Structure formats: C-alpha cells, structure tokens
Amino acid sequence: MEKVEIEKRILYLRKIINDANYEYYVLDNPTLTDQEFDKYLRELEVLEEENPEFDSPFSPTKRVGGEVIDRFKKVRHKIPMLSLPDVFSLEEIHDFNTRIMKENVEPTYVCEYKIDGLSVSLHYEKGNLIFAATRGDGVVGEDITHNVRTIKSVPLTLKEPIDIEVRGEIYMPKKVLEELNEKRKEKNLPLLQNVRNAAAGSIRQLDSKIAAERKLDTWIYHLPNPEDYGIETHEDALKFMKDLGFKVNEKANRVVTGIAEIEEYVKETSLKRSELPYEIDGIVIKVNRLASQKALGFTSKYPKWAVAYKFPAEEVLTRLTDIVFTVGRTGRITPNAVLEPVIVMGSTVKRATLHNEDYVLMKDLKIGDIVSIRKAGDVIPEVVEAKLERRDGSEKEFVMIKNCPICGSILEKKKDQVDHYCMNKSCPARKVEGLIHYCSRKAMNIEGLGDEIIEDFFNLGFVKTIVDIYSLKEHKKDLIELEGYGTKSVDNLLLAIEDSKLNSVERLLFGLGIEGIGDKTALLLAKIFKNIDGFLNASYDDFQNIRDIGPTLAENLYEYFHHVDNIGLIEELKNLGINMNYLGEPEKHHDLISNRRFVLTGTLSFMDREELSALLESYGGMTSSSVSKKTDVVIVGDKPGSKYEKAQELHIEIWDEEKIKGIVDAL
C-alpha cells in the first residue's frame, strides 16, 4: 500500500473509532459491535506503529494511557473558575429567586445535577484537545492532560475545527467504584471511600495507565465565553457543546420558569437520586439568559446569577469515645470529638470539631454518649446531638481543661469571647503557626499540609521544624495508619512536599516568616538578589537602599540572615535540595509602570485583578490593597469602592479601564 493510501486509511480508521466512541460513551447508542471496534482499533495501532510519520497525539489509540509525568505543572486560567454559593433549604432558593426578581431579570433558569466529582477545564485549538486543567484555587490549576486523554467521553477532536474552552465535571460511576473496591479488597489494599475522592485521586496520578483503568467519565456544563460564539442563553450553550461532541446531561438539565417549577425539579431529583448511576450532592440553578447573567454580575467569589442547592445531610449514629484538645496557631484551644468510626455520605468519620466549651455544654455532650453525626454541606463532619434516651449512666461529664495541653500554661478566656487561649508566647503552638505559614498557598504551597493536618503532625511528633517536613517520607508507614489517611493521600502529600523544593526562592523567603516581609516584598527582593546567597552576603545598607525597604525592614532582614540559627536552617534546606534561586522572568521596564505603586478597585472586563497585579509587578510596579499617600496610581474598574473616593481626596492619579487596557495592549 502506498503512503498516500496508508494515510487515507489511518484517517478513515480514526474517524470510525472516534464516531464509535462518541456513540457509545456520549449518546449511549453504539452502532459498531465490540468485535468490529476491536478489529478497527488493532488495525489502526499496527498502521501507526509501522508508519510513525503519521502519528498524532489526537489519535484514539492514545487513550489507553502509558504517559508518565514527573510532576503536575501549574496552569493559570484566563477566565477564573469561580465556585458557586451554596444554599441548603427551599427558603434560601426562594431568597435567591426574590433577589433575581428585584433586579427585573426574567426568572427563567436552567436546573442541572450537581455532580459529585472533580471540576475540569478543557482547551481545544482548531478542534484538537490541547490541554486540560483542574480548578485549583480558581485562578491557578494543574495540568492533567495526560490523564484526561484516557477518558473516553472526552473528545480528542471536535466535530468542528474551532478554538474553545469548556468546563465540566470528571466523575467515577458508582458501579466502577464498587468493582474497583472489590479488586482492592482481594489485594488487601485500602478501600476507596467515595466517588469524589476516587475521581480526584485517579486524575492526579502521574502514570496515565492508572487513570485509564479507573473508567472515569465526564459531564460538560459550562461555556466560559459564550458571546464569542453568538450564543444568547445557557440552554443554547449546552446544545452548542453537545453538537461539538461533548457529553452533556440532556436528560437531567431542565429549563424552568419561577420558583414552583424549581421546587418540582428539586422534589423529583431528590426521589431519583439514589437510583442514578453516579453520585450527585445537589442541584445547580442558573439564570438562563446570558445578558441577564452579565447584568447580575459577580461578587468577589461567586456569580450572582447561580446557586448550588445542597441536599440535606445524611445523619448516622455512633459513640463519642473521648474529647481531646488541640492548640491552634493563635493559641486557641479546640475540643474535638473522638468517634467510633462510622461512614457518613460515603466516607469514614472518626473525628469532629466541637468548637469550644460553650458548644459542648449547649449540646449537653458526655463522653460515652451515642451521638448523631452528619456532614455539613456534605463535607465537614458535625456532631448534631446526643441521644439522651440511649444513656445508661456510664457516661462521663465533659470538663474543660484549665491548662494548655502542649505547654501546661494556665488558659485564659479573652473578654467577650467564648474561646480559651494559651497565652504563653513560647508555647510550641507558636511553632505550629510558623509551620502553617511556611506551607501556605502564597509561601511554599504544599498541598495537603493545611492548618489542622500540620497541628496533628506537630502534636504527634512528626513535624516540629521546617526541616522535619522534608523528613515525613521516613514516616510513611506511620502516616498511612493514621485516622483519615491512606496510601494514596500520603503519596500525594509526599509528592507535594517534593514539588515544593522546585519553587522559586521568593516563596521560600516569604515562608521563612521574617517579620514585615510579605509575599510582594519577597518577590521584589528575590528579583534583586537572585538567590539566597545574595541575602546572606548583603549588608544593612544593601537592604536599606532598596525601594520600599525602610530602616525597620532592613534591620529585620539583616538580623535574620546573620543569625547563626537561621544560617544553619538555610544550610539544611540547601542540603535537602530546596531551590535557592529566583526562577521568574527578569524584571522588565515600562516608564508608566516601573517603580510606581498601584491600587486596583472595581471590576475590569478585560482581565481579572490578580492577573493584572502580576503583570504590573513583572514590569517593576508594586501593588497594594489600600490607598495612601505613597500610592502613585489607582486603577478604577466598574463599580469602584471607597478606594476611588480616597484617591480623589488625596489627588492621586487615576486610570480608567480604557487607559490601563491601552497600556496592557501595547506591552
């Protein structure tokens, strides 16, 4: 067969197989038999292997997995992936509808299932899948393309050669989780607790073969920029995405008008929820007309034109076996319920916070009580009440402790507060605060080491110093045996710790917690000194000669980097392989931006404020959250707040959206 004919045959086979995948996984209406499909796929595999010049990353043969990455790359969303505000009752849905009516917006909505899975953003160029990313913090996610390619319902090539981004949910069907756990049980492996965690864990595998074996699926439900395609309603956006080849939940989605039809949808869905082949944890209600969505706008966190109704939490009974106390980073003492393990909404619950002494007394909880547990918002374990009728006299009264469980200092109650505090500044809990800061998002950004986990690890003796974080791998077996942990979660945590070693040095500088050094100042310093040795060799005058570094900050920096303990810490971190160099782009110059201090207020239509702040800083500008006499320019978007008025009072230069957009476009 000639090369031209081979190429034609390869393209023909790819089309047949792509169409068959679409019919089977999206339409649920296959026309090819399994035998025919396997025959065509095998022929394509052979032709591609023998003719590598015709290989393509968009071939259906690439779905079987096999790509292994060494880490997840960060991806910045051009349009932020905002979450939705939660409501938990029909009354709150009524309130939402009332707010819409007050804005003179047509009360026509689209109701959709809230799928219990992992949010994903899919990007296509000329109809081909280029990359896929998680939501992350809404601004920055992770590139999971190698795993998403293995999901059969995600088209590698669209029915039209267009550039587009769509968003949806990756999920694991209930049956797949059951089958997976049966196999894991046979191998004496820890069982996966619920479909949400199973989907998230599967999609964050470095080896795509594992994700391919997990039989993940998708529902696509959001088009971020519908106006680019001449679309006027969310309903039309769903149809548009379906016509391109995406799996859209047509049977579940419904256009409704008014509160009565919303209530009917909620009632119907609640009754059929348990019969669905996938988990849903609520219902999403969106204003249908896109012009109305735009008119309603956004808060800083959420769109005003949509809500997520969460189903009432499932309650189960278990025994309260003990109440233990932890110390927060501010010294706050928190009582915590130790529970006989119980499964709530698909996951095992062993502990729940009891907040403070008044909370425990109000609920009249005693050690040994049978208590009801639910997950608030289907997520956070909560003790609802003690079952008084189940008491037999063996229960023990709750007694609030008088001394700090960490350092033994006498606890104090601050005026007009319900919480008890350890006031000892030398208490090890203060060290916990430093560890939390080091691992936080703007510092070393170690996913999985949140406040409570660090406190637990500190109290258990695993992590007492920053250096100990990088020794956690030596305690892997012990960590796996802890309540609420498992092999996969520990592996992900250890991977995140290793990833943190690759951060640019400004994150380390901020994470060290030098008094007065925020994340923006840390970035400024990193660009100037380039690496940690520059700080160690700098004099007091070197620091003070930097713009925006006054005598106090200069002294803090000089003393920190010339203290023997801190020099030793940095040497230890070097030996652990922590990056000590600035990895960002060299600072660029612009006459209107460089060496000037900016404050942003209001909403910008062409770029989100965080993205604009980063752009200004890359050109040597400084951004601040408040207006003062030191401010050079206030950038004003739609609906500016009091910062705009203060800028006028102080006669500070003001740029409107047209001006800043012109400057940005010219960069």
Question: How would you concisely characterize the structure shown here?
Answer:
This protein has 667 residues and is of the alpha+beta class. Helix content is 37%, strand content 19%. Strand 4 and strand 5 form a beta hairpin.
> Termini separation (Å)?
53 Å
Helix content: 25-40%
Beta-strand share of residues: 15-25%
Mean pLDDT: 87
Low-confidence stretches: none
Shape: globular
Our count of helices gives: 25
- Main pleated-sheet profile: 5 strands, mixed
How many beta strands in the DSSP annotation? 22
**Major beta sheet, strand line-up:** 2-11-10-3-9
Radius of gyration: 28 Å
What structural class do the secondary elements suggest? alpha+beta
Report on this model:
The chain has 667 residues and is α+β, with helices and mostly antiparallel strands. It is 37% helix and 19% strand. It contains 25 helices and 22 strands. Strands 2-11-10-3-9 form a five-stranded mixed beta sheet. A hairpin with a 3-residue loop joins strand 15 (370-376) and strand 16 (380-386). The longest helix has 24 residues, at 3-26. The radius of gyration is 28 Å and the shape is globular. The mean pLDDT is 87.
Please describe the topology of this protein.
Elements: H1 3-26, H2 34-50, E1 74-76, E2 86-87, H3 90-102, E3 108-115, E4 118-125, E5 128-134, E6 140-142, H4 145-148, E7 164-171, H5 174-186, H6 195-203, H7 208-213, E8 217-222, H8 234-244, E9 254-257, H9 258-272, E10 280-287, H10 290-296, E11 306-310, E12 315-327, E13 333-344, E14 347-353, H11 357-362, E15 370-376, E16 380-386, E17 411-413, E18 420-422, H12 428-439, H13 451-460, H14 466-469, H15 476-480, H16 487-500, H17 505-511, H18 519-529, H19 532-536, H20 540-544, H21 551-561, H22 564-575, E19 597-601, H23 609-618, E20 622-624, E21 633-636, H24 642-649, E22 653-655, H25 657-666
Parallel strand pairs: 2-11, 19-20, 19-21, 21-22
Antiparallel strand pairs: 1-6, 3-9, 3-10, 4-5, 4-7, 7-8, 10-11, 12-13, 12-15, 13-14, 15-16, 17-18
Helix pairs in contact: 1-2, 12-13, 17-18
